[in-house]
Design brief:
The complex is a heterotetramer, with two copies of chain A (381 residues) and two copies of chain B (303 residues).
Chain A lengths: L4 H10 L7 E4 L2 H11 L3 E5 L12 E4 L2 H11 L3 E2 L2 E2 L3 E5 L5 E10 L4 E7 L6 H7 L5 E4 L8 H11 L3 H21 L1 E11 L5 E3 L2 E5 L8 H4 L9 H8 L3 E4 L4 E5 L2 H13 L6 E4 L6 H12 L6 E8 L4 H14 L6 E7 L2 H10 L8 H17 L1
Parallel strand pairs in A: 14-16, 16-17
Antiparallel strand pairs in A: 1-6, 2-3, 2-6, 4-5, 7-8, 7-10, 8-9, 10-11, 10-12, 13-15
Chain B lengths: L10 E4 L4 H13 L3 E5 L7 E2 L9 E4 L2 H8 L3 E4 L3 H13 L4 E4 L6 H13 L3 E3 L5 E4 L3 E4 L8 E8 L3 H12 L4 E6 L10 H10 L5 E7 L4 H12 L4 E6 L23 H10 L4 E2 L2 H11 L9
Parallel strand pairs in B: 1-2, 1-5, 2-4, 5-6, 6-7, 10-11, 10-12, 12-13, 13-14
Antiparallel strand pairs in B: 3-4, 8-9, 8-11
Helix pairs in contact in B: 3-4, 5-9, 6-7, 7-8
The chains are: A alpha+beta (381), B alpha/beta (303).
């Protein structure tokens, strides 16, 4: 789960990190009031879960409160990568002597949290990694011990040659590490970490992503979720305990299991079709999940055919069949349906489907070909 | 023969009285697995019985240490809620259980950063989490892979996926290719056992004559495995990679199935496998024909 | 450093442990007021750093506020093992169904914190260890991971057969472990941990000792030190950065280094004398330390001779000599002085001593014999 | 010959610019020790020089990793304040320094519970903390043992104490017994190297023909060592135990020198040593005569 910059900064502030002062505003008037209170130049920053907001015009410097109001007016309501800006952060503009990057991710190769620092801050770290990898220092932290002071100091000296700033950076890294661990984060970064002309360090932009699996442990963080910043169909799917990702094609897919779902999409593509989505109804599916899955998929106007691919193991195929029949009775489909079912209770499933006038295949390859053919047929028609 | 589990497996079930644990314990008992102990705190002294399974009642214990001491269990399978899984794995490792299979999905990845070294510190092997477990057809089943889709034979199978594994095992079985052991290693970014661990075990297992590996997008485990195969394996390996159509930056269900920047794409993985002499099926069904090309007919179902 | 029961309970309460309600009182009137406010039977408990306060009459049950006042009156000012009671804890009397022991120490063999639990609570754990060792369960905690929930549950089930109390005990153990680690403790114990007739657990007595080496890290804990609960000479020595332990003999000893100090005491005893103290002036001694050492030793009226045994390594023997001369000039000694000096700058030291009319030996054995002979001579005189 | 340090020792000093660190670095340089690097954060790039020592200036680095990489130091000695000692030890271990000597006194014992496994995880040896270090007379000195009281010879010495060690070394030297190496392992309850580690090193060192071990009250390290000597050592060992007059329950200066209940008394230790064939001197001076009885005169000062 991504959280907004201002939320990430709140977490860092509580962890002790020196953060550029700022407050969030939902109206231009509020933005003006904050700027007036600060009495300094401010930066108005769109709060959206999308990269490249600067290029999109979502970050503006304002020298006066009036200017702050004008910028906020323009940014609020702006659409960045399909997401509408609902809030801006009004932050005191920092004096910048130099910019660094400090971040932590979970690294699957070392199986550890990895601290990354670079004196090339203010730009995307992946770009630095691609162009000047020697300007990044990585420390794989042994989670049995945590980030040690000496490790943080090594990073501090990689960023700054003087003891004062090296120490300050080391302190910030340890605070960032604490915040990372305590939030159950999968990513926490400060970019840029600014060094001011007075040699003080301050976090000017920050990003934290929380591992979804941690949210039950952190209700306070779960409450930070901003549903206006997500595609509505994905919010809907999440609430129904489905894993759903919207794509650009027209073959709607309902599959049990993530690997099988990807393989199904791949096969749709192999036969010349385009998948409309990734949708995993999970292992222990019940009819309700199937009903929700159908509702979400059919709300996509691009979908021209719906393909079920169910391999019953834990999943009982009769549950799936019941879900399909119930859903169709409630809301008759306006697109054709191709069903592949095999495994646990498949005879019962076939009987249930037949009673509603539906038929099912047992072979995956055959079913995918049939679904793609439907689209082709319709497109041709 | 088989890898990791066999006729000497004495299985413990952690979370035996839970919804998933009790359901699958019955399935494992029916399959003939020697389930010797269950663990549910507070239910120590009770038993888990199922007349239909035709097996004696399974004694339940409060702790893994108690269960291990009383029954000599040498494998444990874990069905506990995600936020308790790390503790369950560590409890099993601390009690000296050498093989720990964690079915639970949704274990926080930071929990796994502590679990992984703990398991290593205790000299245990962890399979999973978020995996379907493993099965040595006709001999022993640990986890949730449906027994009826498997038959004994000479093919080893290792996969990061669940139902996609079933799909491919089913196709192998229908084509007459029996299996020594099918292992699901799970789709999380940090798991206990990787492709190489399984491939080297299959290489060492005299009963296995060919291996199927099923990968997916995310990470570099398949690429590392490909290098390993080209350098250390004498037996034929064929592959399948799911996620060719997956968009970058989106987690495709599995926590580990995510393309980060340019790393972890299906194209990159397919390329690495093919370069290492591992043919990769474009469709699941292709795996069967690729395998047939590399195995003499006589070997296909000899267990 | 030992802290009082009421201070330990405050720490445990903050860590979340259910603690028997109680408040501290310095007067009998305050004790009565607390009892009146509780409206229950209370226990009046002397707060002193000494075991066996129950046997000494320092713990009394009071059914009424008046009774509480009467007991407090008797206990306040009472002397237990030489320590005067300055405060009492007035605690609500707990209903007791059973008593357990839970504690944590640092174990030097496993080099780990070791959790110990026993269903035989309310008595000294060393007695349980000696008589029924099978009634103690020990868990050596790997400090790289901390006390794990499963380890705490194993202890919980060792104490109680039912899940409710096993869980409650496990929770308390994890809280105790946190408090132990965060306080820099060398010992933390709850004895007894009481199970009430309603099956709830409550800490009825508690003890925490803090590692002196941690105190600079924990000024809040350092502030808990109760100097009235220490021998004044030891408080005095601590403030002068000297390690001093008062003993019963009459040969005062001033030595540099703990091992040499013990060996010196042993040698005094070997030659028939009795050491009056252990005193280590430490490695980098300066004249000030020597002056303080002499002041502390001479304040003991039992001391009949003072023996210096200095092996100069880091310690400069001329510093010691200067300290001796300065101290004697300020406060002429009323007892004889035997000095052994060897090592760094010993010629200069001898010169300094000679200028004040003092002589020094170089051999330890000889010096100790001379000191003991002085006492013998004086006793004979 | 010697144990742990020799003519190939390339020494790093952590805290080289501090009061104690700079004083003792000079002493070590004067003794002829190859001090190749110093570490003081923020002083990287400067040098530590002392014309009187007649040695080239020692380069200073910000971190141990930098110092190790630049100079190939293979031993480090630590003089930093107590609350920074744990980090300094761990930094040295993580940088791959195989021998770490920590002089600092007053390190919290809970810090040591984490430091100890960290050092082990990194395959290093720690001597100390709260120890005087070690010296191989005439060859190399690491720590604070005064060089002038030692002479080369065949006696190994290991001790939990500081000045008591000097006292005994001094007596050995005056009696003509030279030393291979004198090691102070420190008086803390948890330290990196114990008696057995040193005894086994002395047993393996061809130049050492007899060993003196100096113990004190607290713990069971001497008792364990006594058992070890009786089972595994061919060379004569003589002992001394300080603290016969120490009262129970009081910490005698050293954090580890405390009698808890009935454990750790001098009587118990003396008994264990004598039972294992290790004669124990009643007085420090007795150690010399006990040693003389067990060593041929020809060996006494042969280096």
């Amino acid at each position: 789960m991504n959280i907004h910059e201002y939320q990430a900064k709140d977490i860092l502030r509580r962890a002790g990190v020196p953060v550029q002062p700022g407050e969030v505003a939902e109206t231009a008037a509020a933005a003006e009031a904050i700027a007036a209170r600060y009495g300094t130049a401010v930066v108005i920053k769109a709060q959206v879960h999308a990269g490249g907001r600067g290029k999109a015009g979502g970050v503006k410097l304002a020298k006066t409160p009036a200017e702050a109001r004008a910028h906020a007016e323009r940014i609020l309501g702006m659409s960045i990568k399909g997401l509408v800006v609902q809030r801006v952060l009004v932050a005191q503009a920092a004096e910048i002597a130099s910019e660094s990057y400090v971040g932590i991710i979970v690294d699957r190769v070392s199986k550890r949290p990895v601290v990354m620092v670079s004196p090339a801050g203010g730009i995307d770290i992946e770009e630095v990694a691609a162009t000047t990898p020697e300007r990044i220092k990585r420390v794989a932290v042994d989670p049995r011990y945590g980030l040690q002071p000496f490790e943080a100091m090594q990073c501090g000296f990689f960023l700054y040659r003087d003891l004062h700033r090296a120490r300050a950076a080391a302190r910030i890294l340890r605070q960032l590490y604490e915040a990372f661990m305590e939030s159950g984060a999968s990513l926490a970064e400060i970019n840029p970490l600014v060094s001011t002309p007075a040699n003080e360090l301050v976090a000017v932009d920050a990003k934290i992503s929380i591992d979804d699996n941690e949210l039950d442990r952190h209700p306070d963080l779960a409450a930070l979720r901003d549903e206006t910043a997500e595609a509505p169909s994905e919010t809907d799917a999440r609430k129904a305990n489905l894993t759903f990702i919207k794509l650009e094609g027209n073959v709607g897919c309902v599959v049990n299991g993530a690997g099988l779902a990807m393989a199904t999409m791949d096969l749709v593509k192999y036969y010349g079709g385009e998948p409309a989505n990734f949708l995993d109804i999970g292992g222990s599916s019940n009819p309700e999940k199937v009903i929700n899955a159908l509702r979400i998929i059919t709300s996509d106007p691009q979908v021209r055919v719906i393909l079920f691919n169910i391999f019953g193991g834990i999943t009982r195929t009769d549950d799936v069949a019941n879900g399909i029949v119930t859903a169709i009775r409630q809301h008759p489909l306006r697109v054709p349906l191709v069903i592949r079912l095999t495994g646990t209770n498949e005879h019962e499933a076939v009987r249930i489907l037949a009673s509603a006038g539906l038929s099912a295949m047992t072979d995956m390859d055959e079913a995918v070909r049939a679904a793609v053919a439907q689209v082709g047929a319709e497109t041709a028609a | 023969m088989s890898i990791f589990i066999d006729a000497n497996t004495r299985l413990m079930v952690q979370g035996i009285t839970g919804r998933d644990g009790s359901f699958h314990t019955r399935q494992m008992l029916v399959y003939g697995t020697a389930v010797v102990a269950g663990v549910t705190p507070g239910k120590g002294g009770q038993t888990f019985g199922d007349a239909a399974a035709g097996a004696p009642p399974v004694p339940i214990f409060n702790t893994v240490a108690d269960a291990a001491e009383a029954t000599g269990a040498n494998v444990t399978v874990i069905y506990v809620p995600p936020l308790f899984a790390a503790d369950a794995i560590m409890e099993a490792a601390a009690a000296g259980i050498p093989l720990i299979v964690c079915i639970t999905e949704g274990v926080p990845v930071l929990d796994m950063t502590r679990v992984y070294p703990f398991v290593q510190d205790h000299g245990a092997r962890l399979i999973g989490p978020n995996c379907p477990g493993l099965i040595s057809p006709g001999v022993c089943k640990v986890g949730i892979i449906p027994g009826r889709i498997c038959i004994p034979g000479p093919v080893g199978l290792v996969s990061r996926s669940g139902t996609l594994t079933y799909e491919l095992v089913d196709q192998l079985t229908r084509a007459g290719f029996g299996q020594t052991t099918c292992v699901g290693i799970g789709g999380d970014p940090i798991n206990g056992t990787n492709f190489i661990d399984c491939l080297s075990a299959f290489e060492a297992d005299p009963a296995t004559t060919a291996v199927v590996m099923i990968g997916e997008i995310g990470g570099t485990d398949e690429q590392d495995a490909a290098r390993y195969v080209s350098m250390h394996m004498s037996k034929p390996v064929v592959g399948f990679i799911a996620g060719r159509t997956a968009p970058p930056g989106r987690r495709m269900g599995h926590a580990g199935a995510i393309i980060s920047g340019a790393t972890g794409t299906a194209a990159e993985k397919v390329h690495a496998l093919v370069e290492s002499g591992i043919p990769v099926g474009d469709r699941p069904v292709d795996v069967v024909s690729l395998l047939r090309d590399r195995m003499p007919a006589a070997q296909r179902s000899a267990g």
